[in-house]
Design goal:
437 residues; alpha+beta; 2 domains; 11 helices; 18 strands; disordered N terminus
């Protein structure tokens, strides 16, 4: 590689590290100004699950509970590499008049491959963090490349992505006094609703229904996604906060009407890294949602407050947004459909299984036939799920007059499932299920 190219790569890498370090320092300062969202007495009194303690960075110690686990595996290494073999969308910088701010502002817009005015497209409004601007997502995660690849692979539907500047003031450049700029992030709520969205819908061929409008963001933009998205469910049906910052409002304030949220939300997709000192903000929201029975995704990966987490979150969120939930589930589980066989030794003898996983009435389920000591047993399979390579399902087996719940978890590797089988607290076995071709 020429020395000039190496120098440029090293310079870019150093720039990103410096930007990330600056972000951490700024958020740490703001953390002490805003503090974490206060918990209600009801939440304080709620019994806490056993938790693992991790050393915290900014934001304080990290306490991990049993729910704080990854729902998805890491994306493939090439997920944000340009593939010359696939069609590419267009990335452009667009000016718009902001009545809220009283000036002309800029936003970056991605239109998918094959964009045409003969079709109406859904729109994802993607918000940056406190140290960024309308170019940050492109510098950290190249959303255009991620979406080009996902669309080409049939994993995401063609959509427009709008990356505005969430600092709604006349001097909206990053840097300077973060405390002085903080109110501008709240003001952006009106700029987004009254100026950005109308400008996009006037310039592009957009489906303007709430079901075709999503909001997501990183850090400060994650807090804005919570605040603006949940406050305006008449505008946004899909909400995706990634490692939300301390500007996030309290859960009870964000969702005053639980029943309305259940009816209107198509997807609430929340993520954070288990090395992120701000994780408690998202943890509190997850616990509130869980307690009130509001369906959502809670994904905790192994990253910190960093671009790796944000780009990975965008990769997985993009595969669910604007899609029918059952269709997404069925597509994700498609590699599991079929018949599998396994033999393994247990404390009650050698067991031979044949598992059948199928799609029926838009649900992925199945059956199993088990042979033990010359006897044959029928059972049912439920909660079949595949996230990346992570596979899990439950078996309900009637054995000698007892109904046993058996759980399976592990990884899919081509035509093999490497599984751990747990029969309640009674027994645990390791097994390999092979596809019957």
């Amino acid at each position: 590689m020429p020395s000039t190219s190496k120098s440029l790569i090293q310079h870019a890498s150093l720039s990103l590290r410096r930007t990330a370090s600056l972000r951490v320092m700024v958020i740490a300062l703001l953390f002490f100004v805003w503090g974490q969202p206060a918990s209600s007495q009801e939440e304080k009194d709620r019994p806490q699950p056993p938790a693992g303690r991790r050393g915290g960075g900014f934001g304080g110690p990290i306490e991990l509970g049993p729910d704080d686990v990854a729902v998805y595996v890491a994306p493939p290494e090439e997920f944000k590499q340009v593939r010359e073999s696939v069609p590419h969308g267009k990335l452009e910088m667009v000016d718009y008049e902001s009545k809220t701010v009283g000036t002309t502002r800029k936003m970056q817009v991605y239109t998918p491959p094959g964009y045409t005015t003969e079709k109406k497209y859904p729109v994802l409004y993607l918000l940056h963090g406190i140290g960024g601007d309308e170019t940050e997502w492109q510098r950290f995660a190249t959303p255009n490349v991620i979406l080009d690849n996902l669309i080409a692979d049939g994993k995401a539907i063609p959509m427009i992505i709008v990356m505005p500047n969430g600092r709604a003031q006349k001097n909206d450049r990053a840097g300077g006094n973060a405390f002085a700029s903080a109110p501008a992030f709240a003001t952006f709520e009106r700029d987004l609703l009254d100026d950005v969205i109308p400008a996009i819908e006037a310039k592009y061929s957009v489906d303007s229904s709430r079901e075709k409008r999503a909001i997501a963001g990183l850090s400060m933009g994650g807090g804005q996604s919570f605040n603006f998205g949940l406050a305006h469910l008449e505008t946004f049906a899909w909400v995706g906060p990634f490692s939300a910052a301390p500007n996030t409002k309290k859960p009870q304030e964000l969702i005053p009407d639980v029943d309305a949220a259940k009816k209107q939300l198509k997807l609430l997709w929340i993520s954070c890294g288990n090395k992120d000192g701000l994780i408690k903000i998202s943890q509190d929201m997850h616990q509130f949602l869980k307690k009130n029975g509001i369906e959502h995704v809670w994904h905790v990966d192994g990253h910190g407050h960093d671009p790796q987490h944000w780009s990975s979150s965008l990769y997985w969120f993009s595969q669910q947004v604007f899609q029918n939930k059952l269709a997404v589930t069925n597509q994700l589980n498609k590699p599991l459909i079929g018949k599998w066989t396994s033999s393994f030794n247990t404390q009650i003898g050698d067991q031979k299984y044949e598992y059948t996983i199928e799609t029926k009435d838009d649900q992925v389920s199945g059956t199993a036939v088990m042979k033990l000591n010359g006897e044959t047993y029928q059972s049912t399979l439920a909660h079949v799920k595949l996230d990346g390579k992570r596979v899990s399902f439950d078996e309900t087996l009637n054995f000698q007059g007892n109904e046993l719940l058996i759980t399976y978890s592990g990884e899919l590797d081509g035509d093999n499932m490497q599984l751990t089988r747990k029969v309640g607290e009674i027994a645990t076995e390791k097994l390999v299920a092979k596809r019957i071709k």
